[in-house]
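call fold(seq) -> tokens
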Amino acid sequence: MIFDQADLVNQLMQGNQQFAGYTVDGSVNLSAVTDILQNIPAFEIYNKDVESISTEQFDQQCQQNWHMPAEYKTLDIAELVLSCCNNDSELQRCGQELLLYQERNLFDLLRYLNYLVDTMTQNQVIWGVGRGSSVASYVLYKLGVHRIDSLYYNLDIAEFLR
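ret:
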């Protein structure tokens, strides 16, 4: 995420004081919020020229800063998904997909999606049935991200992970 001045002020007004590693749009006038910032210990916002890094580097940087509770960051997502399976064919499909997610270093994404679904459920937020190629993932179905049973419809996981 790249924060602009409004985002920074929003975060401060919500009481967030953990800014280590935040990326801030280079056009932000930090002097406009200096009075508030001087009371925050170890304020480490830095400017980053986003166009000077590759897409892969940008994605990796963003994935290192998932904002979710610690229990989700350390969650054994593979165990959680496999525990949701009811039969051998579900276990086989989830196992196959989890290997593909692991090869692509996407377990943190799955953890975050699990947190997101839990948070939306707790707050009674309604979201769609499913959309696009994501419905080809049975793991996402088991996590509750979408409601399309890709195993039932014989959807190939390659459609999602290309």
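Residues 2-63 form one domain.
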